[in-house]
C-alpha cells in the first residue's frame, strides 16, 4: 500500500493489467531516443517537451519548497499499455514523468499534450507524492493501532493497516488532481499553449464520476477548475 503512494497517476485512470515478469518489462525510453522518429505524434510530443521543459524547471524552482527540478521525461513504448501519464521520483528524489505511447497517439494536438505534461509537472511542484505517502503512513499506523487496541490478532491488524493505508492514499487524491489541473493550466499557458484547448481531452476520456475514495474527480469539475485558472491569468 505504501509503495502505491510513490506514483501519482495523471489525467486518466490507469487500467489494471496482470503484471509481466520483472525481467521482461522494458524500461521507459528517454524522449531523446525518438529524435529520428517519423511518427508525427511523437514529433509533436518532442516539440512540446522542448518548449515546456525550461518553463517547468523555472516554475518548479520558483514555487517548490525543495528545488528538485531536473525533470526526466520518458516514453513507455509498449504497444499494449493503456493511455496514461504519471509522475514518480527517481532514487535521488528527482521528478520522472512517463507518457505511454497510447496517450501520445490519442491526443489531437500539441495543446492537449502540453496540458497533460503541465498537469504532471504540477504534481511534482505541489509535492503530491510525499503528501500522499505521509497520509498513507498515517493511515497505516492509526489503523493498525486501533485494531490492536480492539484486541485483533496479527491478521486483523494487517488487514486494518492495509485498509487504512488505502484510505490515506485516496483521502486527498481528488483534491490533488484538481490542484494539479489548476497549476498545470498556468504552466501550459506560460509555455505558449492553450490550456482550454488542451483540456478538451477530458471530453474523450471515461468520466470517473464522484466515487467515494475514487482516485480522480468528475471530468466536469476538472474542466471547471481549468476555466477558473484561465480566467485568473
* Count of spatially separate domains: 1
Q: What is the share of helical residues? A: 40-55%
> What is the N-to-C succession of helices and strands?
EEHEEEHHHHHHH
Low-confidence stretches: 1-9, 13-23
Number of distinct beta strands? 5
**Mean pLDDT over the full residue set:** 84
> What value does the Rg take, in angstroms?
18 Å
Q: Give the N-terminus to C-terminus distance in angstroms.
A: 38 Å
Strand content: 5-15%
Side-by-side strand order of the widest sheet: 1-4-5-3-2
Biggest sheet, open or closed, and with what strands and sense? 5 strands, mixed
Shape assignment = globular
Structural class: alpha+beta
| Structure annotation, total helices | 8
Protein name: Peptidase M48
InterPro entries: Mito/Outer_Membr_Metalloprot, Peptidase_M48
Domain Peptidase M48: 71-228
GO molecular function: metal ion binding; metalloendopeptidase activity
Amino acid at each position: 500500500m505504501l509503495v502505491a503512494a510513490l506514483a501519482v497517476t495523471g489525467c486518466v485512470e490507469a487500467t489494471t493489467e496482470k503484471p509481466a515478469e520483472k525481467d521482461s518489462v522494458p524500461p521507459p525510453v528517454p524522449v531523446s531516443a525518438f529524435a529520428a522518429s517519423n511518427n508525427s505524434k511523437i514529433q509533436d510530443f518532442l516539440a512540446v517537451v522542448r518548449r515546456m521543459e525550461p518553463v517547468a524547471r523555472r516554475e518548479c524552482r520558483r514555487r517548490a519548497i525543495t528545488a528538485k527540478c531536473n525533470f526526466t521525461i520518458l516514453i513507455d513504448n509498449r504497444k499494449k499499455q493503456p493511455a496514461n501519464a504519471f509522475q514518480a521520483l527517481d532514487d535521488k528524489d528527482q521528478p520522472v514523468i512517463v507518457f505511454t505511447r497510447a496517450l501520445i497517439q490519442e491526443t489531437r494536438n500539441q495543446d492537449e499534450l502540453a496540458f497533460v505534461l503541465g498537469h504532471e509537472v504540477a504534481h511534482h511542484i505541489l509535492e503530491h507524492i510525499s503528501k500522499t505517502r505521509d497520509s498513507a503512513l498515517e493511515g497505516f499506523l492509526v489503523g493498525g493501532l486501533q485494531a490492536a487496541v480492539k484486541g485483533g490478532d496479527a491478521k486483523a491488524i494487517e488487514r486494518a493497516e492495509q485498509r487504512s493505508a488505502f484510505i490515506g492514499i485516496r483521502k486527498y487524491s481528488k483534491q490533488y488532481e484538481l490542484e494539479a489541473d489548476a497549476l498545470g493550466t498556468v504552466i501550459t499557458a506560460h509555455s505558449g499553449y492553450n490550456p482550454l484547448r488542451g483540456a478538451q481531452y477530458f471530453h474523450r476520456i471515461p468520466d470517473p464520476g464522484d466515487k467515494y475514495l475514487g482516485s480522480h474527480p468528475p471530468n466536469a469539475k476538472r474542466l471547471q477548475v481549468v476555466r477558473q485558472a484561465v480566467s485568473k491569468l
